[in-house]
Amino acid sequence: MTVTVAAVDLGASSGRVLRSEVGPGHLELDEVTRFPNGPVRLGDTLHWDAPALHQAVLTGLKAAGPRLDGVGIDSWAVDYGLLDATGALLGNPVHYRDNRTDGVAAQLKQRLPDLYSTNGLQELPFTTIYQLASAAGTPQLEAARSVLLVPDLLGYWLTGRKVAETTNASTTGLLNARTRAWAEDLITAIGLDPALFPSLVRPGEIIGDLFPHVQEQAGLAGATPLIAVGSHDTASAVLGVPATGPRFAYVATGTWSLVGVELTAPVLTAESRAANFTNELGVDGTVRYLRNVMGLWLLQECLREWGDPDLGELLAAAAGESPLAAVVDAGDPEFIPPGGMTQRIVAAAARHGDPPASRPAVVRCVLDSLALAHRRSVREAAVLSGTEVEVVHVVGGGARNALLCQLTADACGLPVVAGPVEAAAVGNALVQARALGALRGDMAALRDLVARTQPLRRYEPSDDESSWDKAERRLQP
Predict the structure, then answer these.
(1) Cis bond leading into 338, ω under 30°?
(2) Which domain covers residue 198, as residue numbers?
(3) N or C: which end of the chain has fewer CB within 10 A?
């Protein structure tokens, strides 16, 4: 049995819809649409254009059809839409890079000093709990009767069902890491009604059939179910890792680098909290124990400031630059806001040594710094979780970047396997296919199919780690 599904994969800088044919021994994906996605500034606030995303999804489904056995949606985390009592959207969702959450985490920590023992999350200023706390008392939040994360909002518009998929719900800071249910006491403590948050669904559950008018708009023939997948794109991407054994770390690269290991239970120790590691849910009840690193956002912003020059030429020039001549802390929150990225990178590098003096040198600084951050996160994740790591899998957009992959192998002192590039869409399609009965087995069986069908590239590490050790020491306070 082979099924045809549409994997809707929405990233923080672009979205795509892929038509996937999946069955025993068969996994094929074809990108049918790709569209830009980014912040829209209205007044002093950064927003997402949710109606435009909805229309882009419909356009993509039309290109993927007319016959689909299922549809699944994954996206970035933490951002949400508010619905009123009639189900109408109360304004476009606010973008996580908006500055409305500045200082909120510190204020909330004074009131709730032991958040980590409940939600197990890395402290990031834009987490949903801080966004909602910053919106306290606003007319929109006062009028809201439902809070839906982005993929759940789009799913509501497709089916009329309000649900919260667990992998994305686990990024809000409002889910109990142990019970995997909404932390109602925490929700109440920040002044919200737990009734705002819908019932939880797990990857593989059928949410409901698309509305007839949606099927008509998308040109689909017959009833088409929306299937819950790992709706946080990293959850889907981690399922799409082509691991052939359990001793692996992953780097899911794109706008962000999500670096960690896969566990069966959260790590909620004081050491884990001090190291700023997060415990988010994955497919089949797994835990994504990871750290968020700034990722290719640093490079994307520089390219935008430079007028989008040829990336291939810049990477070739960067490969010829002196290694580790300039480095920055790629996890520093100072790099979260958009704008002026080149200047911020140069200034940060100057605090740790000589700053980069040319565009290729800035690119090399970014990639060296990302590799250092990957190294630090892989090693600390292994130690804190008691996990042995023998190989690092780089999936997502960064898997195309040969220089970054080689630098990550050199920095970690471990082989790197790069690919698939569309790991989130792969994981999305695999969950749908299993839910529809076309595939059977656990995550290891699904990953074996990825390893056998997707193009991969292996990078071996260099023998010299001393230069990386020295660069690491330069970043220490």
Answers:
(1) no
(2) 3-231
(3) C
Measured between alpha carbons, how far is 396 from 258 in angstroms, rounded to an integer? 10
Residues 226 and 355 in one domain: no
> What integer pLDDT is reported at residue 260 of this predicted model?
98
Q: Can you list the positions of beta strands (E) in 235-304? A: 248-253, 257-263, 278-281, 287-293
Same domain, 153 and 248: no
**Burial bucket for residue 141 (CB in 10 Å: 0-12, 13-18, 19+):** middle
Which residues, 6 or more positions from 467, have their beta carbon under 8 angstroms from its beta carbon? 323, 324
Q: Could you tell me if 230 and 283 are in contact, meaning their C-beta atoms sit under 8 angstroms apart?
A: yes
How many residues are listed for the chain in this entry?
Answer: 477
Q: Give the three-class secondary structure for 28.
A: strand
Distance in angstroms (rounded) separating the CA atoms of residues 310 and 330? 23
Instruction: Determine the pLDDT at residue 463.
Output: 79
Residues 339 and 359: their CA atoms lie apart, in Å, by 16
Quote the pTM value: 0.96
pLDDT at residue 464, rounded to an integer: 83
Q: Provide DSSP, 310-342.
A: -HHHHHHHHHTSPTTSS---TT-GGGSSSS-HH
Write the CB contacts of 434 (distance below 8 Å, at least 6 apart in sequence): 204, 440, 441, 446
220 and 251 fall within a common domain: no
CB count within 10 Å of CB 472 equals: 17
Does residue 441 lie in a domain region? no
Residues in contact with 204: Cβ distance below 8 Å, sequence separation at least 6, in sequence order:
227, 228, 229, 283, 431, 434, 435
Rounded Cα distance between 91 and 10, Å, is 20
CATH number of the domain at 173, please: 3.30.420.40
pLDDT on residue 242: 98
Residue 347 sits in the same domain as residue 226: no
Taking a C-beta distance cutoff of 8 angstroms, is the pair 65, 458 a contact? no
Say how many C-beta atoms besides its own lie within 10 A of residue 247's C-beta.
12
- Final residue belonging to a domain, choices 213, 231, 249: 231
Which of these three, 231, 258, 282, is where a domain ends? 231
Report the domain count for the chain: 2
Nearest to 128 by CA among 95, 86, 92: 95
The DSSP code for 175 is B
Question: Which sequence positions are flagged as catalytic?
Answer: 233
Residue 429 forms part of a structural domain: no
Flag residues of the chain having pLDDT under 50. Answer: none
Composition of the chain by helix, strand, coil, percent to 5: 40, 20, 40
